[in-house]
Amino acid sequence: MTTAALQQGRSIWLADAGRVLHAHRWLIGYTLAYALCGLALARLAGLPDHISLSLYSGASLGLLLGYLGAFLLVYPVYVMLWLRPARLIETILADFRARFLTPERLLGALVALLVLPLFVSVFSGIKALIPVLHPFAWDEAFAVWDRVLHGGIDPWRLLQPVFGTPWATTAVNFFYHLWLFVVYGVLFWQAFSARDPRLRMQFLLSFVVTWSLLGSLLALLLSSGGPVYYGRLTGLADPYLPLMDYLKAASEVAPVWALDVQDMLWRKYAEGESGFGAGISAMPSMHVSATVLFALLAWRVHRWLGYLFTAFALAILIGSVHLAWHYAIDGYLSVVLTVLIWRLCGWWTARDSAFRKA
User: Fold this and answer.
1) 225-240: per-residue pLDDT in tens?
2) pLDDT: is 300 or 13 the higher one?
3) Across the chain, what does the average pLDDT equal?
4) pLDDT tens across 44-53, in order?
5) Residues 6+ apart with CB under 8 A from 20
6) Do 146 and 59 contact (CB within 8 A), yes or no?
7) C-alpha 293: how far from its chain's center?
8) Percent of the chain beyond pLDDT 70?
9) pLDDT for residue 304
10) Residues 6 or more apart from 233 whose CB is under 8 A from it?
11) pTM surpassing 0.85?
């Protein structure tokens, strides 16, 4: 390759880098501001070590490599069985050069993959600080509101006729645990996506805004632990004890993994631990918020994908109540606020100079 060609290639990469940084400036700025707020909160609580800026970097890298490996295995099979080109290897290599290895796509993915693990790490630290900054105070009120809203009946009881068997509970729990892998899968998908840059940025901004405003600010203001911890947190008669007894009995027949996670979270809370997976917070439900956000994105991509993610969001909403993680109103509020934030971020990106031609 000649010197002129190298200089031209470098110029192309530098120009693309400038455009990518301009397009991601709000995402980067918002995340850095959020990180500074998290560090300030930790110092205010006298627990500066509770915030780690790289807590989820290793896990994110491991999952990324796993998803990339799966893509490299599946994509050739797709090309071979669906497209059926005359020259398989040449077609795949040409496709990678033209679509997947372009400077703008790779640089955009790099920015997202640097920003998102930082954001999630700070979020986890703030979540662990919630009971320190504002001890759980809303569980009794939320339980009452839940009951009133559902005709004087606890919502979990309304689900029992359908899901109150051990294997049904295991199925619900499977989807609830699958949530984490879906979250990272969608994040990696959108990190590398180049199909619709404005839609991609609407999603990424919506993700950080929902998790910061709902999962941090609102969770701090409406500090609650959830039905599973109701008796231990309030000291009152526990209306969720029959549900917990059912889940424990069901686990003797079919696995209910939520019980082990709930015990782990309580131990970390009681011992004041932070770190990977720590933190208790019920209102609002970020499990529901995230899946609603995925459904909103999916409907913009393809109808069948919209149906799939809407069904997944419904399964998560059901699981959040049936597995005693959340009051039903935690999920309801998450749905409403997530839709509002999605529309707000859509309005914002539509007026962003970086996407007016996108």
Assistant:
1) 999 999 999 999 999 9
2) 300
3) 91
4) 889 888 888 8
5) 104, 107, 108, 111
6) no
7) 9
8) 95
9) 96
10) 136, 139, 225
11) yes
DSSP code per residue over 141-173: HHHHHHHHHTTTS-HHHHHHHHH-SHHHHHHHH
b/e sequence 158-181, b meaning 16+ C-beta within 10 Å: ebbeebeebebbbebbebbeebee
Distances, alpha carbon 28 to alpha carbons 48, 106, 113, 343, 357, in Å: 23, 17, 11, 20, 21
Confidence of residue 358 (pLDDT cuts 50, 70, 90): very low
| Residue showing tokens 């007894």 | 245
Q: Which residue has the tokens 């920015």?
A: 111
User: What pLDDT score was predicted for residue 246?
Assistant: 97
Segments making up each domain of the chain, as ranges: 44-56+104-350
In the DSSP assignment, the letter for residue 284 is S
How far from chain centre, in Å, is Cα 47? 25
pLDDT exceeds 60 at position 5: no
**219 Cβ neighbours under 8 A, 6+ residues apart:** 127, 130, 281, 283, 284
Q: How far apart are the first and last CA of the chain?
A: 33
The CA distances from residue 38 to 7, 127, 144, 205, 222, in Å, are 42, 10, 32, 18, 18
Q: What is the pLDDT of residue 345?
A: 97
Neighbours of 321 (CB within 10 A): 27
Pick from 212, 232, 211, 233: nearest CA to 224: 233
Going by the DSSP 8-state scheme, the letter that residue 213 receives in this structure is I
